């Protein structure tokens, strides 16, 4: 069962919706051993993963997928991690970061003196400058049309989430430190991670010297959309490589692409079968892993994952949760099960670039036909009998703000299917609607079929636009509506402009409401928690009033492990089962 999800990510390491909805729904089954038992270090840990990787760079629009993010968690350097209860925890293995001024906001990042990449090269301020350039949008001067094509200026780095903060050029640059000064307060400053890839590798791959790259950063002026400067060819080459050079479908022959700054490094990849990670010999600190190798087995079918776990082929699985999967796991011996809600949800988005949905009445009529309760009852209720239809685009049940948003956003207009009301709005029209979704995900297939049958009663002709390669088609816009899931780590607010800012590269359905866009941008500089929540509630209301689409349900999650793997704990955020991989032991 293929359940690829898009990831809410700020370009470098920052994240999306504040708060958590990961509440344990059921305890563990009886296991032949417990996590409290003494385990020996070393060995190989094998984990079944639903989707195969598509890129080593999760920060681009095309690379913004869950499995790619798992690889980031394992292999790329991070100044912070998310701990239990989604609390931001500084990672001193890499270095330190400290707010040294509030007005203006200034943050100093310092790498540890012994910090090295997996090729043995030291991490330096060049690496921090590269990460800052990727995440800040400092050089961007492009003006784009409704389809995202550049009509003026230069687009350097392709960002999955746009640029939610603006800074000056870094100052106080030393061999291993930089200071970032923000032009405005930034609500998620403690989640900004200005390092991802090694500058010495990226420069070489782009065909320029590292010194030439750093000079280009200094020489290129800040982007100005009104009066853009000519493109800097050196910076353009580096950005072009960052944008697409890490997109791979098999183990690259150029091993420089595998240079890691995290606790693990990719060492093997058999397409359609598995990816192997070995320990990074130069990674030191409390996040060093306690095993020798990790194998990520690509097993899309949930039943096959359960069988592999029972047979000892894998040590852990995180399949798409279903009643059949839970039942099979509970019947198995020696298996520990952990269930909870994910900080994620499935949704239907209408494409505002589609000629079909330019008419608001057609959008509202289509949404009136969506059988959300039927979809919930068939997919989620068998696992979680207390589950309810999701009625917010920005909050999840249990999060502060959800009840207020639902009370004010008029989502109750779509609580029940209203075929008569839809027909009235259509006034005899019979629009054709093409829906993009993942044909290898049974839940999405079931959802599509339920929508197709219901919408037909109102006169809609729903065309099957599903594809196993749906994620690569999402940015193209050759569809009228899309079905997929958003997943985030449970901290931060970067998802707000990603979804609702006009022209944002993560705004896949081309939603363009002037008020919502301004509010979305302003959330990034709003430090008052009460005002921030109020702004998000207002955006949520606009999305329903404009018939943006419909949230369907919060996704349930499940981890299962055998008796030889210890330290795995449930986590509903976007790093999935790998969130605390450094705590795992095998034996």
How are the elements arranged and paired?
Layout: E1 6-7, E2 24-26, E3 44-49, H1 66-75, E4 80-82, E5 88-90, E6 95-102, E7 105-111, H2 125-136, E8 143-144, E9 150-152, E10 177-181, H3 199-206, H4 210-219, H5 233-244, E11 264-270, E12 274-279, E13 293-298, H6 302-310, E14 316-317, H7 323-331, E15 336-350, H8 360-368, H9 372-379, H10 402-408, H11 419-426, E16 432-436, H12 442-456, E17 461-464, H13 470-473, E18 481-487, H14 495-500, H15 514-523, H16 529-545, E19 549-561, E20 565-566, E21 585-586
Parallel strand pairs: 1-18, 3-13, 3-14, 16-17, 16-18
Antiparallel strand pairs: 2-15, 4-5, 6-7, 7-10, 8-9, 11-12, 12-13, 14-19, 15-18, 15-19, 20-21
Helix pairs in contact: 3-5, 8-11, 10-16, 15-16
Structural class: alpha+beta
Helix content: 25-40%
Identify the overall geometry: globular
Uncertain runs with pLDDT below 50, 5 residues or more?
A: 1-40
**Count of distinct strands:** 21
How many DSSP helices? 16
Textual characterization of the structure:
- The chain has 587 residues and is an alpha+beta fold.
- 26% of the residues lie in helices and 19% in strands.
- It contains 16 helices and 21 strands.
- The protein has helices spanning 66-75, 125-136, 199-206, 210-219, 233-244, 302-310, 323-331, 360-368, 372-379, 402-408, 419-426, 442-456, 470-473, 495-500, 514-523, 529-545, and strands at 6-7, 24-26, 44-49, 80-82, 88-90, 95-102, 105-111, 143-144, 150-152, 177-181, 264-270, 274-279, 293-298, 316-317, 336-350, 432-436, 461-464, 481-487, 549-561, 565-566, 585-586.
- Strands 1, 2, 3, 11, 12, 13, 14, 15, 16, 17, 18 and 19 form a twelve-stranded mixed beta sheet that branches. A three-stranded antiparallel beta sheet has the order 6-7-10, with helices on one face.
- It is globular, with a radius of gyration of 23 Å.
């Amino acid at each position: 069962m293929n359940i690829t999800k898009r990831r809410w990510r700020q370009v470098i390491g920052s994240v999306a919706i504040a708060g958590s909805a990961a509440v344990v729904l059921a305890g563990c089954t009886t296991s032949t051993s417990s996590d409290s038992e003494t385990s020996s270090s070393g060995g190989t840990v094998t984990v079944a993963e639903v989707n195969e990787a598509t890129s080593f760079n999760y920060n681009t629009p095309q690379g913004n997928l869950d499995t790619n993010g798992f690889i980031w968690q394992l292999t790329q350097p991070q100044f912070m991690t998310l701990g239990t209860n989604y609390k931001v925890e500084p990672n001193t293995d890499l270095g330190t970061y400290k707010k040294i001024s509030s007005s203006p906001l200034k943050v100093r990042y310092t790498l540890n003196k012994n910090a090295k990449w997996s090729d043995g090269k030291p991490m330096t301020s060049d690496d921090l400058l590269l990460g800052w350039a990727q995440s800040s949008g400092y050089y961007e001067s492009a003006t784009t049309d409704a389809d995202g094509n550049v009509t003026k200026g230069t687009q350097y780095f392709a960002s999955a989430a746009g640029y939610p903060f603006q800074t000056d050029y870094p100052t106080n640059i030393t061999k291993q430190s930089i200071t970032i000064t923000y032009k405005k307060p930034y609500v998620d400053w403690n989640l900004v991670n200005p390092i991802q890839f090694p500058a010495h590798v990226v420069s070489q791959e782009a065909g320029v010297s590292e010194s030439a790259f750093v000079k280009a950063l200094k020489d290129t002026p800040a982007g100005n959309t009104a009066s853009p400067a000519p493109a800097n060819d050196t910076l353009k080459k580096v950005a072009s490589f960052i944008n697409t050079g890490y997109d791979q479908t098999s183990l690259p022959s150029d091993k420089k692409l595998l240079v890691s700054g995290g606790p693990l490094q990719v060492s093997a990849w058999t397409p359609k079968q598995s990816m192997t990670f070995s320990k990074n010999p130069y990674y030191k600190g409390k996040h060093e892993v306690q095993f020798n190798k990790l194998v990520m087995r690509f097993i899309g079918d949930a039943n096959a994952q359960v069988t592999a776990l029972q047979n000892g082929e894998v040590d852990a699985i995180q399949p798409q949760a279903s009643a059949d999967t839970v039942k099979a796991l509970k019947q198995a011996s020696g298996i520990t099960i952990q269930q909870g809600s994910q900080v994620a949800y499935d949704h239907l988005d209408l494409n505002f670039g589609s000629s079909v949905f330019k008419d608001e009445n057609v959008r509202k009529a289509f949404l009136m036909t969506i059988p959300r309760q039927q979809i919930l009852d068939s997919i989620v209720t068998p696992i979680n009998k207390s589950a309810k239809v999701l009625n917010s685009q920005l909050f999840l049940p249990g999060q502060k703000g959800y009840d207020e948003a639902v009370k004010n956003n008029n989502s109750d207009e779509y609580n029940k299917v209203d075929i008569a009301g839809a027909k009235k709005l259509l006034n005899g029209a019979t629009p054709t609607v093409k829906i993009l979704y993942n044909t290898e995900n049974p839940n999405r297939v079931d959802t599509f079929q339920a929508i197709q049958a219901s919408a037909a009663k109102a006169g809609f002709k729903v065309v099957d636009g599903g594809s196993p390669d749906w994620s690569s088609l999402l940015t193209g816009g050759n569809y009228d509506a899309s079905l997929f899931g958003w997943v985030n780590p449970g901290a931060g607010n970067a998802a707000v402009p990603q979804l609702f800012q006009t022209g944002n590269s993560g705004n896949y359905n081309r939603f363009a409401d002037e008020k919502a866009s301004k509010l979305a941008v302003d959330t990034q500089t709003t430090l008052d928690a009460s005002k921030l929540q109020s702004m998000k509630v207002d955006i949520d209301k606009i999305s329903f009033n404009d018939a943006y689409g419909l949230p369907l349900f919060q996704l349930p999650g499940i981890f299962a492990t055998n008796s030889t793997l210890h330290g795995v704990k449930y986590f509903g955020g976007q790093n999935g089962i790998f969130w605390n991989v450094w705590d795992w032991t095998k034996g």
